[in-house]
């Protein structure tokens, strides 16, 4: 007899999950704010045991939302230091929620954990230095990091979770006013960065090889990271 796998999730339905996913990655401030409110409700349902990738996504989007609201309203009280602090906390959260469990499980360094997951070294360096950053230049770097990490989460968690839900069977009709699940189409710039990330991850996976090949792999990875940084800087 086939066994049924039960999995505790914070959402009531596929449509609720889909609505939060779409709102979280929307470019509209009101949509993002709605997604963060829903995630707060999810925390209350699971007594704060929401999946780490969702918490990391919420922290990053929350920083972007505060940044966008401050910019649109022209608030003088939103200083560079405040925004740097928010973005820094979000980056620290990502590293703690996504990379640290791999580091602890496999007894490797945080950078090696990032290497395995296709997260660039400079993200870990940024985590280590952002606590002391206050300049506008630091803010721009943190904004770029936030965009890159959100794209990573979208590709490696949210889209994979959607695929898992799809394998469970087609969803029922959405409730009145609900959102019907649909395939996500990445923006052209997001697609370029996604392909670069996947190429970086593929190159990084060949670490156990001859010294000559390792030098070539390292050189290729450096070039790919430079391309990723250039794409993030240009498109955001």
Automatic annotation (TrEMBL):
Superkingdom of the source species: Eukaryota
Annotated signal peptide: none
Biological process annotations from GO: rRNA processing
GO MF, one example: endonuclease activity
Residue ranges, annotated region (Disordered): 165-184
Record-linked Pfam families: Las1 (PF04031)
Gene Ontology CC: Las1 complex
Name of the protein in question: Las1-like protein
Lineage: Eukaryota, Metazoa, Ecdysozoa, Arthropoda, Chelicerata
């Amino acid at each position: 007899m086939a066994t049924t796998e039960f999995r505790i999730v914070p959402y009531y339905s596929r449509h609720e999950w889909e609505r939060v996913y779409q709102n979280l990655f929307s470019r509209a401030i009101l949509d993002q704010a709605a997604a963060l409110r829903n995630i707060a409700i999810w925390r209350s349902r699971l007594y704060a045991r929401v999946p780490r990738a969702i918490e990391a996504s919420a922290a990053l989007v929350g920083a972007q939302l505060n940044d966008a609201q401050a910019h649109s309203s022209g608030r003088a009280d939103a200083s560079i230091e405040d925004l740097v602090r928010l973005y820094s906390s979000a980056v620290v959260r990502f590293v703690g929620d996504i990379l640290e469990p791999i580091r602890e499980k496999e007894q490797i360094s945080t950078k090696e954990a990032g290497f395995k997951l296709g997260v660039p070294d400079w993200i870990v360096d940024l985590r280590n230095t952002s606590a002391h950053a206050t300049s506008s230049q630091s803010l721009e770097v943190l904004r770029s990091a936030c965009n890159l990490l959100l794209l990573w989460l979208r590709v490696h968690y949210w889209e994979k979770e959607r695929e898992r839900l799809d394998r469970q069977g087609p969803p029922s009709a959405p409730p009145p006013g609900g959102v019907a699940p649909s395939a996500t189409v990445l923006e052209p710039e997001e697609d370029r960065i996604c392909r670069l990330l996947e190429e970086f991850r593929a190159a990084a996976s060949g670490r156990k090889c001859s010294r000559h090949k390792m030098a070539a792999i390292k050189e290729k990875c450096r070039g790919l990271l430079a391309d990723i940084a250039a794409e993030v800087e240009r498109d955001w």
